[in-house]
Design brief:
Layout: H1 3-26, H2 30-38, H3 44-65, H4 72-95, H5 98-118, H6 130-147, H7 152-160, H8 165-189, H9 195-223, H10 240-243
Helix pairs in contact: 1-2, 1-9, 2-3, 2-5, 3-6, 3-8, 3-9, 4-6, 4-8, 6-7, 6-8, 7-8
Length: about 250
């Protein structure tokens, strides 16, 4: 193995470890953290493909655990919008350089972190309707197709819509997984999943699987916490919200 290939492998594993560590603590940001490091060693197409592949592993299982709580009428606009936006995102991916994507991912990471930290007062968007949801889904598809970060916008949007935490998870996580799956299929159809990328994924899986497993366990625990109806808690006669096992507010994940 040449020194250049070894360096790329080290950078890849470092990005995987950092992303898994952050996601294990916070429950989100795997793709944002990984992309910021991977783009120093990999091409934009490789980085985006790997983010999508690992995101399916990280979030797929926890979403499967939520399958009985998925709200299809609320989820469908996001999926339809993403399906329309993904080809646009792929066109951006083919034109953008690694420097541009690194800058964009860095700005997005800072903005998303500040949003979660400061929790700025936003306008009431509870009644904007499904057309707006489809528009957010379209933008999410563009973002997912160009960077692989197909779960950020639905997460933020569900918070702005004022949905309870349980409904938030039953929409944002399946919408992200659907975007990841459609993006990966589109990448394969357009020839972006190269043998080199597949070898990198398979060769590094043995090194990274323990880290990714920790993230899967963490996300599954968070998804099936007592506030989630998938694992109902015994009723307590103190208040309606506690008795139904539902929380009055939600935080982005």
């Amino acid at each position: 193995m040449s020194s250049a290939v070894l360096l790329d492998l080290v950078i890849f594993l470092l990005g995987t470890f950092a992303a898994a560590f952050v996601t294990g603590l916070a429950g989100f940001a795997f793709g944002m953290v990984a992309a910021g490091i991977w783009l120093f060693a990999l091409t934009p197409a490789q980085t985006t493909t790997l983010i999508v592949a690992y995101a399916l592993l990280v979030q797929g299982y926890s979403t499967w655990r939520l399958r009985r709580t998925i709200l299809l009428p609320r989820l469908l606009p996001f999926v339809v919008g993403s399906a329309i936006g993904i080809p646009v995102g792929i066109a951006v991916l083919e034109l953008a350089s690694a420097l541009h994507l690194r800058t964009g991912v860095g700005v997005l990471l800072i903005a998303f972190s500040l949003f979660n930290l400061l929790r700025p007062k936003m306008p009431d968007l509870r009644s904007v309707g499904r057309v707006a949801d489809t528009g957010v889904g379209f933008l999410n598809g563009v973002l997912g197709g160009s960077t692989g970060l197909g779960g950020i916008l639905p997460t933020m949007w569900c918070v702005l819509r004022g949905w309870p935490r349980d409904e938030h998870r039953s929409v944002s996580q399946p919408a992200a997984v659907a975007t990841f799956a459609m993006s990966l299929l589109a990448f394969g159809g357009m020839g972006l999943v190269t043998p080199e990328t597949a070898r990198l994924f398979l060769n590094c899986w043995s090194e990274a699987r323990s880290l990714v497993f920790l993230v899967i366990v963490s996300n599954s625990w968070r998804a099936c916490s007592p506030s989630n109806p998938a694992t109902p808690t015994p009723p307590i006669k103190t208040s309606p919200s506690v008795a139904t096992g539902r929380s009055a507010s939600c935080l982005p994940t």
